[in-house]
Design a protein that fits this description.
The chain has a five-stranded mixed β-sheet with strand order 3-2-1-4-5, with helices on both faces. The two termini are 30 Å apart. It contains eight helices and five strands. By secondary structure, the chain is α/β, with parallel strands linked by helices. It is globular and about 60 Å long. α3 packs across α4. β4, α4 and β5 form a beta-alpha-beta unit.
C-alpha cells in the first residue's frame, strides 16, 4: 500500500508538471460525484450529554441519490449533467456509464470548447482519449489539442473538482434543503454552474 501511494504521488507530480507547461486557460477538468437525494443537515440541537438528531423523510441507507458530472476551466464551470434514480431506472443502469458520459461530452460540453483545449478526466470515467475527441468533435467543439486520462488516485493531486469543489457543492446543496430528488438535482446543477473563477482557483 505504501509503495502504491508513492507511485500515485509520483504520477500526480508528473501530471502536475505537465499542467504547468501549458496555458491554464486551455485545461478543462471533468469529473463525477454523487449526493443523497435529500441531503440532510449534519448538525442538530440536543441537551447536554444527548445525541443530536436531524429529521428526514426516510432512513439514509434507503435514500436515492443524484449522480452528477461537471466540467470546469480556470475561468469557471462549463457544463453539468445530473441523473436521478428514476432516470437511471429508465435507462436500466446503476450509475453514469460510458454512453451517458459520451452524451455529456457531445451535447453539454462540446458547444463551449474552443480550439486548443486540453481535456483532463479521471480513469474511472472509462473513456479513451480517442473517444473523448470523437464525441467532442461530433458535438461541434473546436480543435481539441489533447486528452489526459488521470490514473486512479491522482485526481486529488491535480483536479480542482476533487480538491475542493465537490465538497463545497455538496455543502451548499445541503444548506438549501431541497425537498425531493428532482429539486436536489436542479439545485446541484444551479450551484455548480454559479461557482466563480475565484472558487475554482482556491
Amino acid at each position: 500500500e505504501a509503495c502504491r501511494n508513492v507511485t500515485i504521488s509520483r504520477v500526480g507530480c508528473e501530471i502536475s508538471k505537465k499542467c504547468q507547461r501549458v496555458s491554464k486557460k486551455n485545461l478543462i477538468f471533468i469529473d463525477a460525484t454523487r449526493t443523497c437525494a435529500e441531503p440532510r443537515p449534519r448538525k442538530g440541537l440536543a441537551a447536554p450529554g444527548r445525541t443530536a438528531r436531524v429529521k428526514a423523510s426516510k432512513p439514509q441507507s434507503y435514500e436515492p441519490r443524484v449522480d452528477f458530472v461537471g466540467a470546469i476551466s480556470v475561468d469557471g464551470p462549463l457544463a453539468a449533467m445530473t441523473m436521478t434514480s428514476s432516470e437511471r431506472k429508465e435507462a436500466m443502469i446503476k450509475g453514469i456509464r460510458k454512453p451517458q458520459m459520451k452524451r455529456f461530452l457531445r451535447e453539454n460540453l462540446a458547444p463551449w470548447l474552443e480550439d486548443g483545449a486540453i481535456v483532463v478526466l479521471d480513469k474511472g470515467l472509462n473513456l479513451k482519449p480517442s473517444e473523448v475527441k470523437e464525441e467532442l468533435k461530433e458535438g461541434g467543439a473546436g480543435d481539441v489539442k489533447d486528452v489526459w486520462i488521470l490514473p486512479t488516485g491522482t485526481a486529488k493531486h491535480i483536479s480542482p473538482l476533487d480538491n475542493c469543489l465537490w465538497h463545497d457543492l455538496k455543502e451548499e446543496v445541503r444548506k438549501r434543503s431541497p425537498d425531493d430528488e428532482n429539486e436536489t438535482a436542479e439545485v446541484m446543477e444551479n450551484v455548480f454552474m454559479n461557482f466563480t473563477s475565484e472558487a475554482v482557483k482556491q
